[in-house]
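Incident review: delayed structure delivery

Summary: a single-chain prediction request sat in the queue longer than the usual turnaround. Root cause was a stuck worker, restarted by the on-call engineer. No data loss occurred. The affected request and its eventual output are reproduced below so the record is complete for anyone auditing the incident later.

Affected input:
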Amino acid sequence: MTEGGRLVAINVELPAGILPHRLLYGTARFRQFLEVDLHAIRRYWDPELEPAQQVLALLEAYIGGYPLLFQRQYWPLKPHEDGIWELKTPDVRIFGWFRQKDLFIAVNGMDATEVKAGHYYGPFVREAVWHRQSLDLDGGIFVEGDDPDDVVSVPA
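Output delivered after worker restart:
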């Protein structure tokens, strides 16, 4: 996903006839999460889908431009001025920021139960801010605030 410290596009296979509407990029840490760590997470909250299946469905919905449920599938983390968001499934949290509307940069992910029990939100916010500041992305531009309409659009 990342080559030499750069971000690399994360793609998922969309259903026939559906074109990508939103963009997703990831760090090397996020790649490790998708390829290794995600598969060690146990299903706890979703009675039907394993965590890897939950994440795939979420990424398909995000990239495919389907409506996302604010608070249930994406949420801004405090402090809001840091501009860090989480993409959510019942059992998984993905942390990153929106570079612009419909362009999410994923930094890391974790078992939702562990995040909540260990109070890891602060460390994940700091990690995402650090990654954003360490990348050469035109001064670290990102969408500030907590308005869901500023970060995710719905195709007409």
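Verification: The chain has a mean pLDDT of 91.
Action items: add queue-age alerting; document worker restart procedure.
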